[in-house]
Every structure is written in structure tokens, then in C-alpha cells.
Structure to design on (323 residues):
């Protein structure tokens, strides 16, 4: 089985997050496609240099005039790439510290798609979609009734089955706020099973379609996988909070606006801002300044593990700051 994971990098994140790419090829036998989502020329040069350093790394640039939302990027890759055994994706702020291949390939022997990537800040409650919630958000991987929702962070689909789901349900790995363009039978299923919502982050509606077609999917948290969860969003938010925002209002709204208050957002932003500060301090050649430890000891442990890995991983290419 051929597995190639598509990793989408947004502008302003490559200098920090590309540092973790060598861990991917060191710890797995998979291929990885490094995808530039409106990254600057220096960032593209870093990703290209990485791709040229190992025959299991490839580089691809999305041809856009601005950073495009995740769902649009995934849908473009799904439509444009030559079909392979699988279609895989993972967030660029996922850090892999061991061989995850055996775990997920074993699951693909029994399931049509497998997912992972729970952010280090997410609680068990964050991961359950409750009936009153109108947004199927990133951390949600299951409903209160047990319907599997998959992940927005890490997923591997058997391509032949994915093509069937896309075709029969008329749904892509995109964000949805309107399901009326989906197949009528799938719309009825959503209504009859209490799954009609105002907002589905990518690719949750596609994943729900697997349940409609009675195709099994699995969610698995690997001890070898640590997901910061939101580093790109925090970087994008900071860039567009300036006097000269880099995105159109429509695109920024799709990426940053939420259908309802997310209880996890304060934790998510606190973790991401901690990493933005500590990575910058490490880049300047100093140890991260002492921060108030997170109250959750296991979260603090994982944050420090990632900071230590960042310090020990040499910069991939010097001069790779955005520009």
C-alpha cells in the first residue's frame, strides 16, 4: 500500500515547522508531499530544498493569490493529484517521534479511513460533538451518539472508497455551511440522525458520509504523535491583526470566524502563543524564558518535549524566514 501524506504549509510557518520534517522520514517509511499554501519565496526555497534532500519528500505549490482555507486546499489536491492507493493529509504542526506506520497501516487493513491528531491541549470533552452544538469543530471526532467524525488534522483514506463516497454523496473534503448541494439521500440521513449542523469544518462532512454508506472508519491516538494544534491559525491570525492584513476579508472570515463560541479556544491560543514565543527565543540562541507552567501537568510535559525537539533539530535551511 502506497501512503503519501500531504502537509500544507501556510505563509509565515515554514521557518519553524519545517524543522520537524526530518523526523517524519526518520520515523516512518512513508512519502510526504510538502505543499506551499501562498508561502513566500524564501519559504518555498526551504520546502524545495527539503524535498531534494530525500527521495521520499516531494514539493508542490498551490497556485493562489492568497492563503486559501484548508478545505479548499485539500479539495484542490484531491482533484489535481494523480490517484494513488490512498489520499493522506496531516497538519504541519504535527511532530512524529516514533514509527506510526505499523499502527495506521494495520488499521487500514480493517477500515476504509483512519484518523488521528488530537491536539495536545484538547480534553476528552472537547472531542465529543454534543446535540446542542451547531459547529462540527476540529477537535470533535465522535458524536454523543457514537457516530465517527474523523479528524481535521490527520487522515488516510483508501482512495477507491473515497472516490465512491465523493461520487455518491456529492461531497468533498471541504468546509460546509450549506448541505443542499449534497446528494438528497445523504441530506435525509443527516436530518434523520440529528447531524444537520450550521457549520462543518473540513473534512468532517465527507467523513460523516462514510457512516451514511456504512463504511467503517477509525480514530486512533498514537503515543508517537504530538500535535500542537493551531500553530498555523495563530500565525495567520497575528499576521491579519496588523494594520496591513495579508488576506481578503472573505478568506480571513472563513479561516478565523466560528459558528459559535468554542470552549477550547482559550487553551488552544495559549499553547500556540507559548510555542511562537519559545521557538523565537530558541532561534535567537537562547533557552525559552521561564513561562507559567500549564496547570495540566501532562500538557506541560508535551509542550516541553516539543520545545526540546525544536531546540535539538537544526534549522533545515538558514535564511528561511518569510520574505
Amino acid at each position: 500500500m502506497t501512503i503519501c501524506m500531504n502537509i500544507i504549509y501556510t505563509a509565515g510557518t515554514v521557518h519553524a515547522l519545517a524543522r520537524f520534517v526530518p523526523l517524519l522520514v526518520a520515523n516512518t517509511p512513508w512519502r510526504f508531499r510538502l505543499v506551499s499554501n501562498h508561502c513566500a519565496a524564501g519559504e518555498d526555497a526551504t520546502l524545495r530544498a527539503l524535498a531534494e534532500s530525500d527521495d521520499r519528500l516531494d514539493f508542490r505549490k498551490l497556485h493562489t493569490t492568497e492563503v486559501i482555507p484548508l478545505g479548499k486546499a485539500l479539495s484542490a489536491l484531491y482533484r489535481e493529484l494523480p490517484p494513488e492507493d490512498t489520499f493522506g493529509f496531516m497538519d504541519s504542526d504535527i511532530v512524529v517521534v516514533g514509527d506510526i506506520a505499523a499502527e495506521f497501516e494495520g488499521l487500514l487493513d480493517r477500515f476504509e479511513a483512519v484518523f488521528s491528531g488530537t491536539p495536545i491541549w484538547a480534553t476528552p470533552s472537547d472531542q465529543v460533538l454534543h446535540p446542542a452544538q451547531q459547529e462540527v469543530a476540529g477537535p470533535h471526532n465522535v458524536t454523543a451518539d457514537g457516530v465517527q467524525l474523523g479528524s481535521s488534522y490527520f487522515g488516510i483514506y483508501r482512495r477507491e472508497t473515497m472516490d465512491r463516497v465523493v461520487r455518491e454523496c456529492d461531497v468533498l473534503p471541504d468546509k460546509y455551511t450549506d448541505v443542499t448541494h449534497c446528494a438528497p439521500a445523504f441530506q435525509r440521513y443527516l436530518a434523520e440522525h440529528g447531524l444537520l449542523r450550521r457549520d462543518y469544518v473540513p473534512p468532517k462532512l465527507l467523513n460523516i458520509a462514510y457512516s451514511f454508506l456504512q463504511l467503517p472508519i477509525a480514530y486512533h491516538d498514537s503515543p508517537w504523535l504530538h500535535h500542537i494544534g493551531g500553530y498555523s491559525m495563530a500565525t495567520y491570525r497575528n499576521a491579519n491583526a496588523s494594520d496591513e492584513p495579508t488576506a481578503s476579508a472573505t478568506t480571513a472570515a472563513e479561516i478565523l470566524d466560528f459558528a459559535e463560541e468554542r470552549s477550547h479556544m482559550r487553551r488552544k491560543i495559549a499553547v500556540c502563543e507559548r510555542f511562537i514565543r519559545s521557538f523565537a527565543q530558541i532561534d535567537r540562541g537562547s533557552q525559552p524564558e521561564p513561562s507559567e507552567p500549564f496547570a495540566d501537568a501532562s500538557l506541560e510535559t508535551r509542550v516541553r518535549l516539543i520545545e526540546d525537539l525544536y531546540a535539538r533539530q537544526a534549522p533545515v535551511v538558514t535564511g528561511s524566514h518569510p520574505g
In short: The mean pLDDT is 90. The CA atoms of residues 165 and 210 lie 7 Å apart.
